[in-house]
Amino acid sequence: MENFDHILLFKTNLEAADQLQITELFNKEGITGWNIDLDDEDHVLRVVSYSLKHSYIIQLIRGCGFECCELT
Question: Which domain of life is it from (predicted)?
Answer without folding.
Answer: Bacteria
